Amino acid sequence: MVLDPQICRKEPPLSSNRPTSKSATRRERRVAEREERRRAAPKPSGLSVRIPPIAWISGAAIALGVLAIVIAVLASGVGGGPSVTLTKPAELAPSELIDGRSVGPADAPAQMDVWADYQCPGCGIFSTDVEPRLINQYVRQGNLRITFRDFAFLGQESLDAAVAARCAGDQGQFWHYMQYVYANQRGENLGQFSRAFLDSVARELGLDINAFGSCLAGTKAKQAVADETNQGGAIPVSSTPTLIVNGQKVASLDFTVITKAIDDAIAAGQGATPAPGSPAASPSPAASSSPAITPTPVP
Amino acid sequence: MNRERTVLGAVLTVLAIVAVVTSGYLTWVKLAGIIPECGPVKGCETVEASPYSEIFGIPVALPGLLMSLAILITVVTWWWSGDRRFLYVPYALGILGLFVVGYLTYLELFVIHAVCIWCVAFAIAIVAGWIVTLVAMRRTAASG
Questions:
Q1: Would you say residue A115 has pLDDT above 70?
Q2: Predicted TM-score of the model (pTM)
Q3: CB–CB contact A64 B88 (8 Å)
Q4: Residue B7 belongs to a domain with what CATH number?
Q5: Distance from B137 to chain A by nearest Cα, in Å?
């Protein structure tokens, strides 16, 4: 620190015969001089202000925290969650045969309702293996109409997938969305059907992602899933998948049993029977045999 | 060593150990491909299996483990030495941790729809540790 020479010159002589009062005066002068120097000194610029360590440490930590979040969000894909590797269904149903949540003509003699949960393994096998065969064998010929029915009971991810499929249905892509979900099954409630996954399928199918997101956030699709699941409970659906052909529960999930039920329905020409599986349809007594697909029982 | 530092140092050390153990466990199960033990509380397997549990191919718990270890080392050093400057590290990392656990908790609640008990324990340890660090810094400043 450099002292102002002018102020130094004002320093009075040290000699005094009244030490107490003199020293008191000197102290007062020194205080006044210090105050004057402080006023006279140029005001420090912003750069020369001494920043306490706690301030810059806090600032740096906050900046790093914000940076960490930005990186995490970017790594997740902007606004869309992390990138997800999707398995494409081996055989997507022909678009010309799809009618909302059904595939096949509305006046087909055999009407099959498939009550299913998106996480049930048997439903996955039915979707990826049995359904394509039924489509090729019956639906293409106009003899069968398959309708998907929600019976979401295995947990939050079942509900989320069911809602997402219905939201895809709002954009005309229910069936293919459903096929994608089943093609990507991986255990129950393990995080597979996360929002990131659901969004990825929507993107894969070219859906309007904003409309899709709004639908997911809304209550309409959720309520529809809940309502249909309740309807299934009234039939009652005691395991998934439950197949109902023209109002009759299919006794087994064995492919030959399924095709026999369809053949019988076609032969009986019962295409105009009440909507199978609907609450109005009379439930048939459950029967069991050795199924090709292991059904998931409803607790 | 004064009594206040003894108590604060012990609390900070315990919280840092909790953070190390929880993040270490989550790192280990992710690397080993094991479903984490959740006990009666469900949800950690969902969180652990979700795509958000890793970033750039590494378990998201790994940076948490490294951060917790740094906090533990500096807290113990402060506890023994009394040098207040060592508290700057848990203080700064605590702020960083607040952002990270805040974001991860948001993901659990609103995106993954599952809550991981291990992640909750880690978050509590980080938040509580930062608050106790603040107290320690104020007390040590006050005592000179």
A1: yes
A2: 0.51
A3: no
A4: 1.20.1440.130
A5: 10
